[in-house]
Amino acid sequence: MNCRSVVSGVVVAMVVCVGATASAQTSAGTISVTVTAGMEPSMSGTMHEGGSGRVLGLATEVDEKTWSDTHEQTGLSGSAGVGIGLNDRVEMVVNVEVGRIDAQRLEVGTVATLPLFAEFDDYKYWGVNGGARLFLGSGSVSPYVTGTVGFRRLSELGGTFSVPAVSVTVPQPFFEESTVATFGGDVGMLFGSSRVKIGVQAGVRWTGGPNGDAASFAGTGLENLNDEGARLSIPVGVVVRF
């Protein structure tokens, strides 16, 4: 089952359950703590552009690659947040999050017609976001939607470029450590009738692109490679709410 199917399934389940729920999930002044653990695979977004230039005096061609090309579709993400109820349906939330996605080696172009490979550093971040959560019902089954805005601090991300045919390997800076904006929305479902509920959640998250390192490929004609970097992802995970 792919990530789009997960999102669709949660939405359908929410619609089915709204009519079967009754009591309030929160109330004015109620404090909640929510912990989420899962993964955040990339849905779209250009990791680096394509281009033509000369490296070490040799004609070089680089193909455009997406985040799902350069990094694995698995990884770890998690968050912990505090909410305060405004009424019996809405609570304001603030979350702290961390995440990591492992890189994978791949062919990205050619140098003098020989295959050029790259392996970038892992994509790592921490961040803070806040917003509102709307409960569509409550009781033993509690569907909800959440909207957030915030920022992420992305770690410096470099790359190692190699031409195995001639045993050449060159480490290269690529993205600087950067603070970028995030926007997102989640849909979820909580289960249980006690003060501790367990559930599932899926959503969509846009993360801005990091700053390109000015030293990367300077003077080669390939300086545009790190002009992109924004990422659209689908966070999915398990939720525990106190």
Task: Give an overview of the whole structure.
- It contains two helices and 18 strands.
- With 242 residues, the chain is mostly beta strands.
- It has one domain (3-229).
- The chain has an eight-stranded antiparallel barrel with strand order 1-7-8-11-12-15-16-18. It has a six-stranded antiparallel β-sheet with strand order 4-5-9-10-13-14, with no helix packed on it. Strands 3-6 form a two-stranded antiparallel ribbon.
Write the layout of secondary structure elements.
Elements: H1 3-18, E1 31-39, E2 42-44, E3 46-48, E4 51-55, E5 58-62, E6 65-66, H2 67-70, E7 76-85, E8 90-101, E9 106-111, E10 114-120, E11 123-135, E12 141-154, E13 157-163, E14 168-175, E15 178-191, E16 197-207, E17 231-233, E18 236-241
Antiparallel strand pairs: 1-7, 1-18, 2-17, 3-6, 4-5, 5-9, 7-8, 8-11, 9-10, 10-13, 11-12, 12-15, 13-14, 15-16, 16-17, 16-18
Largest sheet: 8 strands, antiparallel, barrel
Per DSSP, the total helix count is: 2
- Count of beta strands: 18
Radius of gyration: 22 Å
Helix % is under 10%
Tell me the β content: over 45%
The rough form would be described as elongated
Quickly give the structural class. mainly beta
Low-confidence stretches: 1-23
Number of domains: 1
What's the order of the H and E elements? HEEEEEEHEEEEEEEEEEEE
Distance between the termini: 30 Å
**What is the topology, as strand order, of the major beta sheet?**
1-7-8-11-12-15-16-18
